[in-house]
Amino acid sequence: MKKLTFRTPALWTRHASLLALSGSLALFLSACERNLTPDGPNLGDLYGNFEIREGLAVSATTVDFSAGQTVHFTAKTSIAADWVLEVRGTNSGSRWRLEGKSKELNAANATWEGQTTQFPTFAAEPCNVKLWWPGQADTLKTTVQVTGTRALEGIVLDAFDAPAIQTHWTPFLQTGANMKFTTVNEAPRAQGSSYYRMGGAVAWDWLIGMLDLFANDYDATEGFGLPTDATKVYFNGIFKQKEGLSNGIILLQFREDDNGDGVYQSSNEDLWAVELRPTANWKLESLKYSDLVTLINGTPASAVGNGIHEPHKLHQVSVLFLANPSSGYAECDADALLFSLNSPAKL
Amino acid sequence: MMSSIKLGLALAAAAVGLLPVQAQNAPGAGGTAWRPKFSLNGHTRAVYTADGFRLAGDTTTLPRENSGHVLADLGMNVHPNDQTEVQAMIRVRNDYGGFWGSGVSFDVRQLTVKGLINNRFRYALGDLDYKLTPFTMQRTAPLLQAGDVLPSLELFQRALPGNDVWMNPDGTWRTQGASVEWGLRYKKGPESHKTNLFAMRLRPALGGAQTEQWASGGRTALNWKTFFVGANAVLVQDVPGTSAASLFYRNAVATLDAGLALNNRGLKLKGEGGISRTEWALANAPAKGDYFYHVTLSGATRRWSVGYRDIGPDFFSPSAQTTAYNLTNVPGSFSRTGNDRMLRTANLMDLHRETSLYRTAWNPTLGAEPSVYLTMDPFGVATPNRRGLSAEWNPTPHSLAGKPMGPWNLLLKADWASEIRGQGTAALTQFARLDALGGWSNKNWSVRALLRLQRTWRTNAGENVPNYALSQPWLKANVGYRLRDDLRLDAGLWTVQSTGYAFQSVRDAQNQVVDFVGGEVNYREWLPVASLTYQPFDKTQLVAGWMANRTSSEAVAGPSLSSAFVAYIQSF
Question: Do B207 and A307 touch (CB under 8 A)?
Answer without folding.
Answer: yes
